[in-house]
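User: I've been trying to design a sequence by hand for this structure and keep getting stuck. Would you show me what you'd pick, starting by listing the structure so we're on the same page?

Assistant: Good idea, let's start from the same input. This is the structure you sent:
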């Protein structure tokens, strides 16, 4: 038996919370009321919780049920975000807009931006290419991408650049690393001597760290994905330099520790287009959505 809650049952529970009864939620989900009742009882039995107070007037969430619904809304939203991203990766769904994005932007920001764009124009089905920041610019130059999103301070001079905001990098280690036990920032000399888990050359993460360190960093491992960096840090291969967004959960739960330092590890997030190519209204709309979204994100990841 799966240890994960059934997504269809969670969607049904949210519908009951919104519509006020199992019958109304069943109709909304396209199933019979007995089937809906059976599904909720199975969910309650699986987790040994009472989620609903049932009466002739309808169904009311218990305190436990309200908590589960709150979490379920987040899970279902993230599933919608993932679906949007997966659809955008499929070349068969290309229609009207081709987007190239660096890994951090594609993983943590772009699906939501595309989702908002599709709320404005439901028929639009963008194609997404996920590459490092250097390759994003190449795809825009070649015309393979109408717009690109990068997170590096090294900006292409031959392309039009719209700065959206900033993204923070963190140096993280296991809690038993000597740096994690410090109460003062790690000095630059120690940072220079360390061996790191880093992204490949051409990535915004790598170029930002190299610029801040002002020397070429020593490598314990070079990885081509954020998940590989996090996994290497969790395995104790060395300090990892990664987007703060990517490790927020691990830092909050204590599995990784953010190391204090005096480096400036902020990199701009920018949209790039080719000024020589035909204007694309979808690209412009996506840029405006991204600008608004990044401004909202500053409250969560304020600039230091």
């Amino acid at each position: 038996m799966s240890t994960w809650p059934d997504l269809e049952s969670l969607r049904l529970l949210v519908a009951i919370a919104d519509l006020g009864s199992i019958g109304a939620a069943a109709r909304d989900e396209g199933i019979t009321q007995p089937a809906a009742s059976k599904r909720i009882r199975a969910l309650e039995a699986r987790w040994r919780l009472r989620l609903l107070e049932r009466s002739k007037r309808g169904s009311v969430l218990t305190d436990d049920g309200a908590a589960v619904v709150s979490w379920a809304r987040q899970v279902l939203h993230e599933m919608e975000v993932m679906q949007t991203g997966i659809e955008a990766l499929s070349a068969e769904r290309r229609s009207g807009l081709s987007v190239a994005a660096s890994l951090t932007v594609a993983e943590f920001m772009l699906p939501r931006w595309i989702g908002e764009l599709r709320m404005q124009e439901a028929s639009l089905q963008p194609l997404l290419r996920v590459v490092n920041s250097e390759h994003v610019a190449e795809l825009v130059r070649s015309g393979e991408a109408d717009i690109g999103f990068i997170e590096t301070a090294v900006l292409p001079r031959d392309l039009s650049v719209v700065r959206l905001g900033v993204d923070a990098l963190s140096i993280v280690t296991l809690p038993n690393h000597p740096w994690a036990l410090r109460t003062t920032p790690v000095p630059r000399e120690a940072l220079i001597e360390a061996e790191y888990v880093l992204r490949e050359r051409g990535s915004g993460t790598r170029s930002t760290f190299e610029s801040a360190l002002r020397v070429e960093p020593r490598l314990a491992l070079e990885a081509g994905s954020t998940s590989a960096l996090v996994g290497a840090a969790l395995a104790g291969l060395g300090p990892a330099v990664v987007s703060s967004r990517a490790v927020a959960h691990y830092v909050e739960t204590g599995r990784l520790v953010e190391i204090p330092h005096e480096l400036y590890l902020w990199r701009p997030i920018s949209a790039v287009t080719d000024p020589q190519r035909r204007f694309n209204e979808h690209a412009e709309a996506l840029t405006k959505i991204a600008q608004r979204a990044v401004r909202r994100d500053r409250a969560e990841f304020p600039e230091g």
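That's my pick for every position. To get oriented when you compare it with your attempt: The longest strand covers residues 160-173. The domain at 78-153+274-297 is CATH 3.40.190.10 (D-Maltodextrin-Binding Protein; domain 2).
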